[in-house]
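Work package 3, deliverable 3.1, input record:
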Amino acid sequence: MDQAWLIPAIPAAAFAILLIFGPYLPRKGDWLAIAAIGASFILVFPVLADLLDQADGTTYVAGEKAWEWISFDLAGVGEKFEIEIGFYVDPITIVMLAVVTLVALMVQVYSIAYMKGDSRYGWYFTVMSLFAASMLLLVLSNNLLLLYAGWEAVGFCSFLLIGFWWEKRSAAEAAKKAFITTRIGDVGLLIGIIMLWLEGPNTFNIQEIITFAEEGGYDNTYLTGAVLLMFMGALGKSGQFPLHVWLPDAMEGPTPVSALIHAATMVVAGVYLVARMLPLFEVADPIALDVVLVVGLTTVMISATMGLAATDIKRVIAYSTLNSLGLMFVALGSSAVAAAMLYLFVHGFFKALLFLGAGSVIHATKEQDMNRLGGLAAKMPITAAVFAIGTLAMIGIIPLSGFWAKDEVLVFAKEEQNIIVYLVLLSSLVITGLYMTRLFVRTFLFAPREQAAYDHAHEGGLLITVPLLILGLLATVGGFVVFDEVGEALGFPGGFAQFVFLNEAHEFEFHLDTAITSSVLAGGGAVAGWILWQNKAELAARIRDRFAPVSTLLSNRYYIDEIYQFVIDRIVLGLGSIIAWFDRVVVNDGGVDGSAKLGYFTGFEAKFLQTGRLPNYALAIVVGILVLSIAMLVTQV
Amino acid sequence: MSTSLEWGLLAPEFLLAGWAAFIILIDLFWGGLGKERLGWLAAIGVVAAGGLSLIWVNDAKQFGELADINDYTTLFRVLFTGIGATICILSARYVRDRLLNPGEYYALILLAIVGANGMAAAHELLTAYISLELLSFSLYALTAYAKFDLRSNEGGLKYMLLGAFSSAIFLYGIGLIYGTTGSTQYAVIGEVLSGDTSDIEWGMYLGLALMIGGLGFKVAAVPFHMYTPDAYEGAPIPITALISALAKAAGFAFFLKLFAVAFLPLIDDWRYFIAGLSVATMALGNLVAIQQRNVKRLLAYSSIGQVGYLLLGIAALSQDAASALVLHMIGYVVTNLAAFTCVILYYNWTGKEEIEEYKGLAERAPYVALCLTIALFSLAGMPLFAGFATKFILFQAAADQDLLWLAAVAAFFSFVSLYYYLILIREMYLGEPEEKTRFQTPWLEYTALTVLIAGVFLIGLYPKPVFNVVEDATATIFVSEELESGEDLVGVP
Amino acid sequence: MIPIDNFLVLSAILFSLGMYGVLVRRNAVLILMSVELMLQAVAINFVAFAVYLNPETFTGLIFGIFVIVIAAAEVGLALAIILRLFRNRQISNVDEADLMKW
Amino acid sequence: MEFVLLALIVIPLGVCPLFMLIPSQYPQLSRYLAALAGGALFALSLLVFVVYEFDGGSGLRYELQWDWMENIGFLRENGITFYLGVDGIGAPLVLLNGVVIFAAVFVSWNIANRTKDFFVLLFLLVAGVYGVFISQDLFFFFFWYEVAVLPMYLLIAVWGASSEFGTFTRTKEYGAMKLTLMLVGSSVLIWVAIFALFVEAGAGTFDMTVLREATLDEDFQKWVFPLFMVGFGVLAGMWPLHTWSPDGHVAAPTGVSMLHAGVLMKLGAFGILRIGMTLLPEGAEFWAPVLMALGVTGAVYGSVSALAQTDLKYMVGYSSVSHMGFVLMGLASMNEIGVNGAVLQMFAHGVMTALMFTSVGALYDQAHIRDMTQFGGIAKRMPRHSAFFAIAGLSSLGLPGLAGFVAEFHIFVGVFEAGYWWAGGLGILSAAITATYILRMLSRAYFGPLNEKWAGLKEMRIGEQFAAVILIAMILFMGLWPAPFIDRISETVEMIPGIMG
């Protein structure tokens, strides 16, 4: 357990070495980055083993290790203000570690081929290692401050990676947009952390705060406020409804980056935070969980609908990510941590798979727009097959991992929430089926729409296909971890839920009715999609023309971007220029220079007293004498 | 009235007067000596007189009832001879190039120093008045000395007539004080005024008011300052320096001694009037200075501003305030002479005195520019230089006598004064001179300048030795204060 | 004996006459004459005080003499300057002598 | 060790006459001398910081007390003494001064006209700043405070640059004059406050350790503290009186604005802490809400108006006003975490702004304009320069791992702890606004396609890069391992009366 700190340390060391000696290493040091993340991946297993064999009876004692970073004792109060660097491992951490390290390894191996020949090849791997290190730090940290530090560092790496090709104006703008939006979210997170520290037990340690809250330490409304503010941070990072605008634009970055950051790891940090802090959400006012639920739902619906209209394949997958994240938050909204973590675990694999598949398509055809692709299955059989697995997993077809995770979410949603929520989720299943099949059909099947792209199409080399296959395997097999038998076989105390909820036993039962309804709806959506978009997709075109206003609304992403831009331009920048003008004219010219001019002109007037004529001078003397003597006589005598 | 007078005590004055006559004769009979060397000769005489006055260091003698020769007088004798020597050296080249009959010029300077010494030494109103008139007359003559220069003529006329007018007023004041207290001795006046003065109030206060007016003129306090800019601008530059240094220093020496010994009992009556004068002087002096375009007029108004600070010392009259005042006066005199040396040098080279014409002085004479900058910063009260330490001590002494508001006003106007000094500094360093040639360096003036700047740095960085000397000097005029407790006045100053 | 007040009133009147003269007159010489008038008023004052208040000491009288001496010296110097002014600019009106102002 | 403190003042003052001796035809010689002196100062400051022992005592280390004037006039026993001593708050700021002067010397390597005079004035400024940080006598505190302001006018007026902004122009004379007059004007308030303090304490001495013990009654403190607050506040860029800072920076040459924004502005905040809050605790407590309000307005006001600036130096100027607003907030929180945060922010902001000005100066030297809208994609031509500027920007927006975050975090915690939750919220919001204008500037000027006009730009000079590397080292040192700073600062802040836990 106590070598858990090595996991983030190795990539961090790799980052430091690459930063300084990167350009001089052979192959710009990409092997060093991969070796580092590989080592971290391997290290996860001994930590897991430690965690498992510590299991005394049903509960697992979570390991913790901390060093002092800042500490000084507070005068008068007698306590010490302490900030420490500490690591805390428990099942949720293990799930996150597994997903992050594995997907990062796959992506970095994939990137060797994808990024070959890029002018800043070394810099790419340097930032990748920094990203891995900060993500692992975020996941492992035992106190809120270190979590916040990892959180910001991850945001900064996403800024660097989205803006990797900063020569492109759009990439630079996208990077800036991403970082600012997440920063706005983080304002809430920081205030939340400080509020928790303020009324709490004078420490940032998460476990102590949770126990303090569970003993009723915080008063209710105060805790709700703090928790909702922290949720605001999660909103920013995981691209939920109000702050989701940056994720679609984040596709400007290289595709492996999108695969790693905008599918499997960074965007789920918000989910991890809420999962970690869920006891606080439960102690606080129920409104908190309802807010999480509502936000999740709106994101699900918005992203699903927008997916229908987008033509760029990476953007469609990005919307599917938003869709999945929405689902995870719905699960958390109904305080189903196991379901959320399961979906996160599984989603990591098949979403990375979809992105990498899209990547290999782009890598081969240099083309991202669906309307110019089509019929690539013949040219790229492996990618097509693996992409099919990913699409079906996303839709949630029976044997694949997506189905089991989505079902868990549906089950908990049905039990915990009212019927409307359940119906909305079911409708989202249909739409997901529609737009995912549209994606697959438009890119891989039927006649190619543009010959040039089709000719260029070729299967990627081993470095591309091997990661795809591994992820494809995990996407198919991953779901079965839910069953207890499979869990025991692998040495776990039981199924996935059992593992996540260490102390309370959570048996996995298979709810036949939800399974059937979800499969029917999902399958129906897929078939409908096939029918609509086969051959020349005339049927889809006719429908689009009939509902023209709706499709334009969707393709413009509900004009949310434009509204935000309007708000920023008018209010924020406007206010800025008004204040700048105010500062220059009123405070500076009026106030400061004004008083100086006042002094200058009194002097100017006084100057003319000096007329140069002697009698006036004599008059001044006489006046002086008179005033002096009269005043003297009047006051003294 | 002991009639036996120790004439030896006035040796420095006799030497000066004799030397003045000697200078005139030399100029008359031995033309070959040349105007420049005549200046040096005069300077030697003055220095000799200064050296002579050191005989009476920490000695307390009395020249009849008229004057007393003690540390106070010695300090001021040395100060005045110092000023005189510097002025003689500085005016050597100026007189050679621009003035006729230098003999009388230097003689008048020497006589002015005699007058100044008399004012500091006087212990009695009549002697003080006569020395005051001697000083003033020589300055009137020197101001109008450039016969064919219209401005010098006009300046001299204004200075003369207004001077006569105000000395008449001053005399009327003395008359009233003499009438009411029955004597012209400071100590006796002090004693009478500390007694009950119910019946003689009218005459006394009117006399006091008139004397403050007259003295106000001599030190150029505000309502009476009108002549200063014209006199400064009109007079030949070395004489402007002389007026700004000698007239002010002698005026305050007399002002301080008179008020410390004679009028101290009435301090609560006249304190707030002097404070009022001080505020008016600082305000007008600094504000109008901002508008000036001619360097001489600028320095005139700056010296009016400085007088405001010195009046502050008088308003807060106590032993500490008096020594702080004298220290600030020494700092001011040294800094002012340094500034005027630079102005004289530039005038000798180029004949210019407008601020715009100081463009690019830093290119052409970097050392002179640096010294002028140091002097100006010291006048503004910036640290490292004399102005900061002396102003700090003076204002703190005033604050100690619970005149904090006055110290605050003074601090404010000291800041206002920084503006017009910066204007001059800006011209020197930022402007571009017409031609880039370096001026040839007159070694004598440079050494005088270096000595003065060293003085500015000394008082700025470590004023303790100078302050000790000043402390002993002011102790003598405040002896009567300690004695008040019970013993009657022995009449020993 | 005539009470001292008469003398004081006399000198006060003379003094204010002189002061008025200085303020009103424009000719330099006349200004000088008014100043001399003021000085004589002061001399009267001194002599009056000397005789009436402490006749045995001569301070007041000596003062009176010195005032006269200084007044004389003053006239000498002032006339010289006024003469120079007249010779240079042919004016004696003080208001015209305002080369230096502001 | 106490002669190290003396050396900190003697070296800069002593080197001035040496510069004078160098004939002006050999500017290179004066540059080497400046580098040598800068290096010595940096080493000594590092020494003072590192060898600072933690034993208890009155909190002052390496005391050196020389009688300057005592038992004369109103001064009684050790009236004015040349009293040097460094404490927890002084040590990091001395280090800051050493770092910034060392960097500034290399940045101003290519000053062409009158290099000799430039360095004389620069080192005079540094001597003044050192004097303020380590002098324990109120008279000498004010003495060095004024010395630091003395060379400002000439430094900006002679070596500065005027700039044209279409609707208004900002000549260098205007900037220099305004800056000098506002600083000296504000020092009038301090001067009057010192007079009042000296008279009230009645101990006849300016020694601060004695004045600290003097019991001053409540109402006296209440009307003297605002004098100190406003007097020092002007130099610390307090809100209504901050306008001299952006104008001064626009006009000043790079090296001067580095020292100026990096160190001189800290004098103001240091003054409020060392004189205002230590000697007048009740007064500070009474006026804390006002200081907090002004600090917050400054922070938000500064960051929002920085948002609207197109000139790089104006942007950095307004960001300095904003960050100094944070410092004032930290001080106003009157609790140990907040005040620690304030002192940390002084150091952090000092180093950050110095780095920002180095980069802006480097860009200005080659491009001769500072309007960020006309630049585009210059990262292509100046990769290292943009990296340095990016690091400075990120540290100022509070990225963890860099100095800005540690300081700002402490300030926010302190402000929340003191109960001003509205101020804390606004402060964190202004940190977000800082992120906006920094990133907007980075993406507009540095990233994006290369604007052909700037194809000719070359990388920063070696000197500037060396200066930038030192500054970055400091940013990372404080960002990753702040313990040495905090231990020193907290130990002294504890002993300040009136600072609650």
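The CA atoms of residues 601 and 607 of chain A lie 9 Å apart.
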